[in-house]
Amino acid sequence: MKNGKSLTRKQKTFLLSKGYNFKDYLCIKNTSTFQEFFNRKTGEILTIEIEGVDMDGRIKRKNA
Fold first, then answer.
1. d(C-alpha 17, C-alpha 39), whole Å
2. What is d(CA 37, CA 35) in angstroms, rounded to the nearest whole number?
3. Among 10, 40, 51, 63, whose Cα sits 20 to 30 Å from the Cα of 4?
4. pTM of this prediction?
5. CB 28 within 8 A of CB 40
6. Residue 54 near residue 31 (C-beta atoms within 8 A)
7. Which of 18, 10, 20, 62 lies closest to 40 in space, CA to CA?
8. How far is the CA of 59 from the CAs of 15, 29, 32, 35, 49, in angstroms?
């Protein structure tokens, strides 16, 4: 596994908005479509898809 990095301010507020305690997590992957965090206490990897972008990297658009 790669070494986890400290969270940025945006990542901290992102985790808080999702209901997670940011003090328990390290960032291991940050892409345009998803982010992966490593939980320091449990060892689990948390993957969160970024809203507005599907997993293919295309921006989701609402039909008008």
1. 17
2. 7
3. 51
4. 0.75
5. no
6. no
7. 20
8. 21, 20, 10, 16, 12
